[in-house]
Amino acid sequence: MQEHLPHASHEPAIGRTVQYYIDERPNWPDGTPVPVTPMTAMQWRIWGLAAAGKFFEGLVVFMTGVAMPLIANEFGLGAVEHGVVGAASLAGILVGALLLGGLADQFGRKLMFIVEMVLFIIFLMLLSVAPSYVWLVVFLFGIGLALGCDYPTAHLIISESIPTSARGRLVLGAFAFQAVGALVGTGVGYVVLTIDSDVTAWRWMYAAAIIPAMLVLAGRFFVTESAPWLFARGRKHEAEHETARLLQRKPAYPKKVVLSAPHKVEAGATGWMALFNRRNRRATILASVPWFLQDLSTYGIGIFTPTILAATLGHDSGNARNIAEIIQNDIAAAEGAAMIDVLLIVGIIFAVALADRVGRVPLQILGFIGCAAGLLIASFSAYYDGAMGTALIFIGFMMFNFMTNLGPNAQTYLLAGEVFPTAIRGKGAGFAAAFAKMGAVLTAFGFPILLASLGQQMLLFGLVAMSLLGAAVTWWFRIETTGVSLDEVGAHGHHAGKVPIPDSALAEL
User: Fold this and answer.
1) Is residue 36 part of a domain?
2) Alpha-carbon distance values, 204 to 87, 248, 426 (Å)
3) pLDDT digits (tens, 9 = 90+) for 395-415
4) What parts of the chain have a pLDDT lower than 50?
């Protein structure tokens, strides 16, 4: 079935919204429509700078797994302190997504896009010279604040600036750089460890990101503000100006931007409680609960993969006799973690390719089930010694990483920025990310404690159950946004029991 997207010669079925202008496709002289909506240089710039934010998140969070043994040795951390360090940046993400991300609805997407990178750079510099355990936790929390703000802001600044037909691919394409960052973070940790065999080598790991972050900050000053946000705030002329800047081409088209409201706009509250009213409650549950359940597994496995591998391979840093052994054990674990992290990238590549074809909800359900299978395979390593036990850990974790990025790790992020109306999109996506990071914080703090008290197998069994529950919740509260323009989301909302899926999306499903 042909997609119902506007062409240059057609009158809009709804008001001439920003999305209408973005979705317009040119025609060839004989009237044949061009099959894709052309992207402008500004749209690609926005996408690239947003992707950089996701890269830094993966870099910092996963690099902490490599840095952890050195940090623990320098500051003499016990199991509780170890958990606090692992949870500090995730707690910051929780607070940042809820408080700072929600400010994007009030002060604009662009301003918060800049502010979050300023905060990231400041706390990154402070972290590299942290004088004590307490300040280390404070600075990691500060980095998390910046990364938390990026969760809703980066999604919104992309999704409100690009064609509907490519929204899934491009949002997830940017999100893919979290996996790239995870791999690079593990790689940076490995390189630093091989160059500097001192216990303070972890400081150089974090310092390596400062200059790249400064370059990204400079670029963010030169992007457009979200025109849909401006229009929703009643700033029509500014919205028209920013739309023209966003769509600047050679030859120039459109010649002039004149915006009008979409038909059938349903007015609604814009405060935080609007997320829980009858209109938006279903969207809030879908965006938040599966993401929470997914983060229980993803961050626990991601952060502590080096620790688990070190123990499985017989290189537990807790048994090391000196700094040289700690470094050597950490290098061995980093090598194994890097092999497993490659599957994050493979998984997100498949997600990018399939999100606009198969749909967000089917991929999320399939991914949750696949995650459960991978964790179950890894849990069987408890019954075997030597090479077989190690192989089961690797196979299970690699399957988990592939399926989580194909499904819930990618699709929860995508859905959270799509299912809410423009006026509360920042709050909705921010709340979902914050609620999800409650799961990440609980895992990061409790994982080392539970690992020591319950053992690896029982912990993995618990994560299997959480993954299956995530699949069930996704199915029960499903809202498919594949092929749905953001104008339609704002016009109709999602009343309980209604799951609007346009004909174009049904054709793809």
Assistant:
1) no
2) 21, 42, 34
3) 888 899 899 989 998 999 999
4) 1-4, 9, 11-13, 314-323, 495-509
In single-letter form, the type of residue at position 488 comes to E
What is the CATH number for 104? Answer: 1.20.1250.20
Residue 504 in tokens: 């174009």
Domain tally for the chain?
A: 1
Pair 160, 17: CB distance under 8 Å = no
What per-residue confidence (pLDDT) applies to 178? 82
Q: How far apart are CA 476 and CA 468, in angstroms?
A: 13
Q: Are 415 and 386 in contact (CB under 8 A)?
A: no
d(CA 136, CA 123): 10
For residue 344, the model assigns a pLDDT of 77
| pLDDT tens figures, 249-261 | 888 888 889 998 7
Q: 105 lies in which domain range?
A: 41-508
16 domain residue, yes or no: no
Angle, CA of 422, 89 and 197, to the nearest 5°: 140
Between vectors from CA 123 to CA 104 and to CA 291, what angle results, nearest 5°?
A: 50
Which pLDDT score is estimated for 158?
94
Residue 13 in domain: no
- The per-residue DSSP string of 3-19 comes to ----BTTSPPSS---HH
CA terminus-to-terminus distance, the chain: 11
Length of the chain: 509
500: CB partners within 8 A, 6+ apart: 479, 484, 488, 492, 494
Spatial separation of the C-alpha atoms in residues 344 and 225, rounded to whole Å: 32
